[in-house]
């Protein structure tokens, strides 16, 4: 039985992972669950899955949980996340945290020799070089959960990297596909949160609307598959049925398709190289029901400027991706709090990238320092 420790078990990915685990309870057990502030849901998860350890963000919540569940080890804060990422009674860590806060626990898991099912793209954006070097050194598996990266990983099975011509990274285009820059000036929070195909946490949903999600995914793919960003092409595919594809040097394109349901890539990462029986709860893709067919377009990079920013950050390296990500995390938070307009996200990101004085060869401390500085700058700027 594989023992899984889940960082961010109360979120969109975390809860869907627990659904997969519950359906396959002979294959998996839960070593640890964790959340930020959704204590009510965390308590229900503790009662159902009986983990050995839990982690919450605040000390006061940790005290409450310790009193309620006396046989459970309770941790809190960033240190606590590292504890449950490296605990002995665990074979695999699912990192479904939101944001670059996942970087340190990822490194803790790698250092402890744990395989990782990996959803937390911001971590690879800021620390891809560091994480992938450690993954290689320790010989652990870092298995992508992000739907496009799971698709690419599946398409690459059995092929040498030297055979790859390019990666076709699909994007739904988000709720504002086809909008002009003027139209983006007037969109509301509710409109931005209405993703056409996926139900996800708020931060990634806004990233999909600005297309920064695709930008982050370019950098994520660059590190996961050790491929230069120039060989990654964004393909807008509004139906989200083809989850991405790999073009080989002989002209073959191999893609991965399925209904847009995150339980599929989650299950693959948890069970790799096997496949789980998903049973009747998993809808089959009925190709005859695709009324609008499957369509493909280039991304509108004049309107969605985040895409070029991500290519540029990836090309320049050093602190650029850290700053792009940190600024974006703060800006999305501010947009969701009603403090800035939607268009201000990309406008501010362009300014931040232009003004940035880069540093190179960052270690963990350097990354955290750059992240802290940009967050401070953003808060002063707005
Ligand atoms: N949702 C999706 O379908 C997809 C998500 N991803 C990526 O997966 C990651 C998770 O996304 P998603 O599940 O949507 O996000 P959610 O916001 O739904 O969940 C985030 C999880 O992290 C916890 N968390 C947030 N902040 C902290 C903190 N400071 N300390 C400890 N725990 C914290 C949350 O706890 P609490 O509930 O208490 O706030 C929650 O459990 C992101 O990197 C996203 O880009 C990738 C592809 C698809
Ligand atoms: C489900 C998933 O992997 C998301 O990252 C999804 O891709 C978001 O949709 P967009 O393609 O609109 O960014
Ligand atoms: Mn994705």
Strand and helix layout:
Layout: E1 2-7, H1 12-23, E2 28-34, H2 39-49, E3 53-56, H3 59-68, E4 73-76, H4 77-86, E5 92-95, H5 103-111, E6 115-118, H6 121-138, E7 142-144, H7 147-156, E8 164-171, H8 181-184, H9 189-192, H10 202-210, H11 212-224, E9 232-236, E10 242-248, E11 253-257, H12 263-271, E12 297-298, H13 306-316, H14 320-336, H15 342-355, H16 364-381
Parallel strand pairs: 1-2, 1-5, 2-3, 3-4, 5-6, 6-7, 8-9
Antiparallel strand pairs: 8-10, 9-12, 10-11
Helix pairs in contact: 4-5, 5-6, 6-11, 6-14, 10-14, 11-13, 14-15, 14-16
The chain binds NADPH dihydro-nicotinamide-adenine-dinucleotide phosphate, 1-deoxy-D-xylulose-5-phosphate and manganese (II) ion.
Describe the structure.
The chain has helices at residues 12-23, 39-49, 59-68, 77-86, 103-111, 121-138, 147-156, 181-184, 189-192, 202-210, 212-224, 263-271, 306-316, 320-336, 342-355, 364-381, and strands spanning 2-7, 28-34, 53-56, 73-76, 92-95, 115-118, 142-144, 164-171, 232-236, 242-248, 253-257, 297-298. The protein starts with a strand and ends with a helix. It is built from 16 helices and twelve strands. The protein has a seven-stranded parallel sheet, sandwiched between helices. By secondary structure, it is α/β, with parallel strands linked by helices. The model has no long low-confidence stretch (mean pLDDT 97). 1-deoxy-D-xylulose-5-phosphate binds at residues 146-148, 171-172, 174, 198, 204, 208, 213-214, 262.
